[in-house]
Design goal:
The complex is a heterotrimer of chains A (115), B (222) and C (93).
Chain A: H1 24-38, H2 44-52, H3 56-61, H4 64-78, H5 84-101, H6 108-114
Chain B: H1 3-7, H2 35-49, H3 55-67, H4 70-82, H5 84-92, H6 94-100, E1 109-114, E2 119-124, H7 133-136, H8 141-144, H9 146-151, H10 156-162, E3 172-177, E4 182-187, H11 199-205, H12 208-212
Parallel strand pairs in B: 1-4, 2-3
Chain C: E1 9-12, E2 31-41, H1 44-47, E3 56-64, H2 65-68, E4 79-85, E5 89-91
Antiparallel strand pairs in C: 1-2, 1-5, 2-3, 3-4
Classes of the chains: A mainly alpha (115), B alpha/beta (222), C mainly beta (93).
């Protein structure tokens, strides 16, 4: 019954002490989450619960703010604020937009999923 | 400014992905590529269109976060070094003491812990990434990493050595795992040779890592 | 209201309820000493599900690193401190 987030005492490798300046996308997720929180629509506890329920793969393979994004999505759908259909449609739209403008690069793995 | 921003009714929000131009130096990974990154933009657009949040709220939050840096915490530490009465107030009520210097800490309780010749404090959140964000800004990547969170409670001295910090065996190491609403600020030891320095000059010596507890403060270079 | 006093020895419940829990697994079943009472706080383990419940006392609890880890390599006086909700603490007779 150890959740994927509950790592205290587990073996791991050296700490990567390099600095990472947050990208604008990461700052946006942070700002969006804070805005939703300020409206009383999601507490930090609800956000953490959703992050934990993403499972082990998410904790191994996803980046920190990707997990936060997934958690925000789950909370907003669970609360009936948005629907999965709306999310799917918007993701499709954004991908189309990006492909047309070419201003943002999609990586090959993502291109494979779209094909 | 591209057409799609007008199509979706938030022409004022021109910084979806190019705001970094005036915000931070471009990073190699500063491109939207994964499903989750696209999802993040999708959520932002949907929540704005539905009137749940305003684009201005998101922008204001980003600006507010950017405005909070470890220099804020350094001011608190330097004041505690020079003013024993302030130091006593800081240990009694961290939020009130931070507010005296204009730093508002919302929703969490700031708890200051003091490094001495007998005890060295270091902070972690093994369950997530709890950190005194309202005083120090967003945590460094390593603080959120699995390696730091997993190991610092079990082999803290080895982890500190990876930061170049050696704690003598006769100094007790005290690891704080932030598991509830407490947010810990380490008050590092004031370096020797700083007796005559101004509060402002002292604050400039205080590093983020020293306030997390993974580093000590180097004496000033003369 | 404070149910434990500083200096009091406690044992952390060795339970594994499903859901959002703020007591790390590595502390469950371990003995520690209460350092201080931080006050009563919203219970994250209830709030995580969008519900409200009674506020819970939160206590600093100090553990000897050697008691947590059989193979702890540092000196015997090293400690770990965590902030734990009262419903995870058991009084020791």
């Amino acid at each position: 019954m150890r959740g994927p987030h509950d790592v205290g005492g587990l073996p791991d490798g050296p700490v990567d002490t390099q600095e990472h300046i947050l990208t604008f996308w990461e700052k946006q997720v942070d700002g969006l989450r804070a805005a939703v929180g300020a409206k009383g629509l999601m507490t930090s506890h609800e956000s953490r619960r959703a992050v934990e329920s993403l499972g082990h793969d998410a904790h191994e393979n996803m980046q920190y703010y990707e997990r936060w994004t997934a958690a925000l999505c789950r909370n907003m759908i669970d609360k009936g604020i948005i629907t999965q259909d709306e999310v799917d449609a918007r993701v499709t739209l954004i991908r189309k937009r990006l492909a047309e403008t070419g201003e943002l690069e999609l990586d090959s793995a993502d291109a494979g999923r779209r094909a | 400014m591209s057409a799609h921003e007008h199509d979706h009714g938030h022409a004022d929000d021109h910084d979806d992905h190019r705001g970094h131009d005036h915000n931070a130096p471009p990073q190699p990974d500063d491109k939207v590529h994964s499903y989750y990154q696209i999802l993040g933009i999708a959520l932002k657009e949907l929540l704005i269109e539905k009137g749940i949040v305003a684009a201005a709220d998101v922008r204001r939050n980003i600006e507010a976060r950017d405005a909070i840096t470890p220099a804020n915490g350094a001011q608190v530490v330097a004041r505690a070094w020079v003013d024993p009465a302030y130091k006593a107030r800081l240990f009694a009520d961290g939020n009130a003491a931070a507010a005296e210097l204009g730093f508002v800490i919302a929703n969490t309780k700031l708890v200051a812990v003091e490094n001495t010749s007998d005890e060295h404090n270091v902070v972690v959140c093994t369950l997530c990434s709890c950190y005194p964000r309202d005083l120090l800004g967003l945590p460094p990547s390593w603080y959120k990493s699995r390696a730091y969170r997993a190991r610092v409670v079990r082999e803290p001295r080895a982890v500190l050595e990876e930061f170049g910090t050696m704690i003598p065996d006769d100094v007790r190491l005290r690891v704080h795992d932030s598991t509830a609403d407490m947010r810990f600020l380490v008050v590092p030891r004031r370096p020797v040779g700083t007796e005559g320095m101004s509060e402002e000059a002292l604050a400039a010596l205080v590093t983020r890592d020293s306030m997390i507890g993974v580093a000590a403060i180097d004496p000033p270079k003369l | 209201m404070s149910k434990f006093v500083p200096g009091e020895s406690v044992r952390i419940r060795d339970d594994y309820p499903p859901g959002h829990i703020r007591t790390p697994v590595y502390l469950r079943g371990k003995r520690g000493v209460v350092t201080r009472y931080f006050g009563d706080f919203a219970n994250a383990e209830v709030e995580a599900y969008g519900r409200r419940g009674p506020r819970k006392g939160v206590y600093g609890v100090l553990f000897c690193a050697g008691d947590l880890w059989g193979d702890y390599k540092g000196p015997a006086h090293d400690v770990v401190e965590a902030d734990l909700y009262e419903h995870w603490l058991e009084k020791l007779a």
